[in-house]
């Protein structure tokens, strides 16, 4: 039962981050606002940085999905635990750049918490 819950959470995390990454590629203004810091998208190369974030997010989700398909339960747990650095860093970045505290804690902080629970369930199974 615990492994099933952990796999469902892993799948939801993978799907969500892939969708978020895709949004950074196809709707960067909307995605940037959802991130918590609105960059000057009229700056010459601002779109490049948003594309980098989109690709990073898609790749992260795909890594988790591939490990799920392989049935590598403990490895997924370690990868999700290591990847928890990403939303924690995102929350810090938002707060340090006068972004929305509600998004920093409510989106990035909550994501980190779900990831920690998911990794614990996977590693303790």
UniProtKB/TrEMBL annotation:
Keywords: Membrane, Transmembrane, Transmembrane helix. InterPro entries: DUF4267. The chain crosses the membrane at residues 6-26, 102-124. This is DUF4267 domain-containing protein.
């Amino acid at each position: 039962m615990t492994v099933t819950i952990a796999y469902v959470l892993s799948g939801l995390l993978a799907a969500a981050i892939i969708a978020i990454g895709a949004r950074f590629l196809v709707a960067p203004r909307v995605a940037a606002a959802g991130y918590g810091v609105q960059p000057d998208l009229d700056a010459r190369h601002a779109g490049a940085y948003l594309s980098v974030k989109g690709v990073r997010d898609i790749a992260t989700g795909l890594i988790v999905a591939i490990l799920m398909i392989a049935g590598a339960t403990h490895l997924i747990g370690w990868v999700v635990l290591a990847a928890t650095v990403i939303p924690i860093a995102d929350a810090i970045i938002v707060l340090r750049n006068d972004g929305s505290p509600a998004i920093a804690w409510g989106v990035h902080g909550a994501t980190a918490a779900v990831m920690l629970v998911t990794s614990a369930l996977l590693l303790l199974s």
